[in-house]
Amino acid sequence: MKSGIEHDKLIRKILNEIIDTSKYKISKKFIQHGNTSVYMHSVRVAYISCYIAERYNLKVDFDSLIMGALLHDYFLYDWHDKNSHHKRPHGFYHPSVALANAERDFDLNWRVKNTIKRHMFPLTPIPPKCLEGWIVCAADKICSTKETIKIIKF
Length: 154
Fold this sequence. Notes:
Oligomer: single chain
Strand content: under 5%
Largest sheet: 2 strands, antiparallel
Structural class: mainly alpha
Number of strands: 2
Radius of gyration: 14 Å
Shape: globular
């Protein structure tokens, strides 16, 4: 099992690869919840996902877990902008947009694809098929709740 330090290094490595080869940096401009950017939210979800997997000694593919966490909200628009042309309600449609963007920019395995597409369960009706997807789904809810009610203490 990897340690927290090893996960930190792996998250930073994958994040840097994503930043260097995509439009990921623009997610810093968009607010996700409260005052938290989409970028920071996704990084937090990656850290919490690794913590959950490590804490409960879950057998996961950490590369897929981290990649799925970092790209789960790779929708690249301001969902608060009423004049934007994105589909509404955002919560139901953004997983498909994030997956389409991620597939355009990266070579993804089925675990990463499933994680991105299904992270909004139960808002979207079909649950994840892989453990990595379930973990990111849970980590996303934890981070979203904390960001929304402004109790961020990570």
